[in-house]
Write a structure and sequence with these properties.
Elements lengths: L2 E2 L2 H18 L5 E7 L3 H17 L2 E7 L5 H13 L5 E4 L9 H5 L13 H8 L8 H13 L7 E5 L6 H10 L3 E5 L1 H5 L3 H5 L4 E4 L17 E4 L3 E3 L2 E3 L4 H5 L4 E2 L7 H19 L1
Parallel strand pairs: 1-11, 2-3, 2-4, 5-6, 5-7, 7-8, 8-11
Antiparallel strand pairs: 9-10
Bound molecules: nicotinamide-adenine-dinucleotide.
Protein name: Bifunctional protein FolD
Pfam families: THF_DHG_CYH, THF_DHG_CYH_C
Pathway: One-carbon metabolism; tetrahydrofolate interconversion
Length: about 280
């Protein structure tokens, strides 16, 4: 039976490290958060980010912009925050109103203030193994893997999902640890090859957003399984993998919820401290 790989205790450990780093900084770090319009999802993220920031000694400044804010206005606002030396990091809350293209506007955040780690400069640094600011979810997965104590060198790692925020950066981070990385996606499924690849995985990471996509009996004996997926099924939150049958084969497995999720806000705050250090 697999050991449960929970995010919360790891997050608590990292938060203690962050607290110490915050105290060593010359100034209290400031995270500027932009929310355009009112959305229940964004409001709930902001609430949890505010709480974590407070606990770590980070100042969280929320900027509420109107629902009808134009792209040009938002870009000007970002430029102001870029120029403001008291601001160490900038985050844009999702979802944004329909008239705003996140990909377009997020590029205006200076790479050294990009606490989500999604600016092309920060993504590019991952390729060179030099990134200090990492995409939060991918970084959370790497922390979970670190907790198992398993050396990734030469291991067969299979990542299912190739999104810009999870699968792609994660595959680069795994390569940096010398894992042999296979990335699967919708094309793999359409070619009927998903099961074949998943069965080879010593490290299996799934980030798709489809409940039950990965069958529990595809999991290799002793595999480490990380389920990033979040799906609402009959009022319950489940991952992309059939948990009960999978835990019979895996050596480690993340619960959903409670695996990756609790770590992502912590990764955001760690990025902020890295950003503040870079700016010092
Ligand atoms: P996305 O929609 O951007 O990408 C989905 C990926 O899955 C794509 O690469 C696509 O090709 C692949 N895919 C779709 N159908 C497939 C199939 N049948 N077989 C194989 N691959 C398939 O998604 P995302 O933003 O990366 O998020 C993925 C999941 O992770 C979602 O459930 C999301 O809610 C969750 N997520 C969780 C956290 C967290 O903090 N726990 C953070 C980010 C995303």
């Amino acid at each position: 039976m697999a050991k449960l790989l929970e995010g919360k205790p790891i997050a608590e450990k990292i938060k203690e490290e962050i607290k110490q780093e915050v105290q060593a900084l010359k100034h209290k770090p400031v995270l500027a958060s932009i929310m355009a319009g009112e959305n229940a999802g964004a409001v709930s993220y902001v609430k949890s980010q505010t709480k974590v920031a407070e606990n770590l000694g980070i100042e969280y400044k929320l900027h509420n912009l109107a629902q009808d804010t134009s792209e040009a206005t938002l870009i000007d606002f970002i430029k102001k925050l870029n120029a403001d030396k008291s601001v160490n990091g900038i985050i844009i809350q999702m979802p944004l109103p329909a008239q705003i293209d996140y990909k377009k506007i997020s590029q205006f955040i200076l790479p050294e203030k990009d606490v989500e780690g999604m600016h092309p400069v920060n993504i590019g640094k991952i390729v060179f193994g030099k990134a200090k600011i990492l995409p939060c979810t991918a970084a959370a997965v790497m922390e979970l893997l670190k907790e198992t104590g398993v050396d990734l060198y030469g291991k067969e790692a299979v990542v299912v999902g190739h999104s810009e925020i999870v699968g792609k950066p994660l595959s680069l981070l795994l390569l940096d640890k010398f894992a042999t990385v296979t990335v699967c996606h919708i094309g793999t499924s359409k070619a009927g090859k998903l099961e074949e690849h998943v069965r080879t995985a010593e490290i299996l990471i799934v980030a798709v957003g489809k409940a039950g996509l990965i069958k529990g009996d595809w999991v290799k004996e002793g595999a480490i399984v990380i389920d990033v997926g979040i799906n609402r099924v009959a009022d319950k939150i489940v991952g992309d993998l059939e948990f009960e049958p999978a835990e019979k084969h895996a050596s480690w497995i993340t619960p959903v919820p409670g695996g990756v999720g609790p770590l992502t806000v912590t990764m955001l705050m760690r990025n902020l401290v890295e950003a503040a250090k870079l700016q010092q």
